[in-house]
Amino acid sequence: MQTVQDIPALRAAIRGWRTQGQTVGFVPTMGNLHAGHQSLIKLARARTERVVASVFVNPTQFGPNEDFDRYPRTLVQDQAALAESECDLLFAPEVATIYPFGAAHSVSVRVPRITDELEGAHRPGHFDGMATVVCKLFNLVQPDVAVFGQKDFQQLKVVERMVRDLGLPLKVMAAPILRAEDGLALSSRNQYLSAEERARAPLIHDTLQKMRELLAQGHPWQAIEQTAAARLQRAGFVPDYVVIRRAEDLAAPADGESGGLIALVAARLGSTRLIDNLLFD
């Protein structure tokens, strides 16, 4: 696997593949990779002939009280994980490469409406920073396919809408959530959990499953949200949101609506913020 940090080297490698008529898949990451990230690489590998991954901890998607400085930088381990997953090229740029005029003076991409609630309401500016860097990376890599994990479901929907609205010539693919045996969604932030918190953390997935069961039994979605939030609070979580939404656009469902829905949870356990979701069949 080749590792490059500058744009000319990235484009030269991709140009060589394109002259051979090869398709290109892309997986953008912030590094500190785990088996969930590797599953994204493998999905891209199954769909395209060449795979590019990026490792870039993007400063513009972290709020002032978030964990940008604490976010682990593990490039050597990430290189090994990507090579094991048969990634062809790693793009690991410096901040100045992505933001040549400084992050505060960058062109900004904002995807309206769908970014205003849930994660957007609790992390102001997060999706503007995410959409901006993803748009920049799409322009640099120009992939045929880009793969995103379903765990960050709102992010996935924001990227899908941006691609469609801007007419970007690529397909966005969603990769299923990878979970530990006890149901906890794999996340780089799981390492912040104490042993006691780690033992409690799977209750989020269990609660999502119970929300699905209650909806199938005919309970109103508003009551299900309240019951689920109270259950998490009793277990020591501090929820930011516990909601049922339409999977297509994250709008609130109509009363009695049961098809095409998703439950989403964001909650703090100790100092660690966890997110998860579950699509309803």
Structure characterization notes:
- With 281 residues, the chain is an alpha/beta fold.
- It folds into two domains: 2-175, 3-Layer(aba) Sandwich (Rossmann fold); 190-279, Pantoate--beta-alanine Ligase, Chain: A,domain 2 (2-Layer Sandwich), CATH 3.30.1300.
- The protein contains ten helices and nine strands.
- The chain has helices at residues 7-19, 35-47, 75-84, 95-98, 119-122, 126-141, 153-166, 195-200, 203-216, 221-234; strands at 2-4, 24-29, 50-55, 89-91, 145-149, 171-175, 238-246, 261-269, 272-279.
- The strands form two sheets. It has a six-stranded parallel beta sheet, sandwiched between helices.
Classified by CATH, the class of the largest domain is Alpha Beta
* CATH topology term of the largest domain: Rossmann fold
Class from secondary-structure proportions: alpha/beta
In total, how many beta strands?
Answer: 9
pLDDT average, as an integer?
96
- Using only CA atoms, what is the Rg? 19 Å
Helix content: 25-40%
Largest sheet: 6 strands, parallel
Q: Uncertain regions: pLDDT < 50 for 5+ in a row?
A: none
**β-strand amount:** 15-25%
CATH architecture assignment name of the largest domain: 3-Layer(aba) Sandwich
The best one-word shape is: globular
CA(first)-CA(last) distance: 39 Å
Number of discrete domains? 2
Please give the order of strands in the largest beta sheet. Answer: 1-4-3-2-5-6
Q: Number of DSSP helices?
A: 10
Order of helices and strands: EHEHEHEHHHEHEHHHEEE
* CATH homology-level superfamily of the largest domain: HUPs
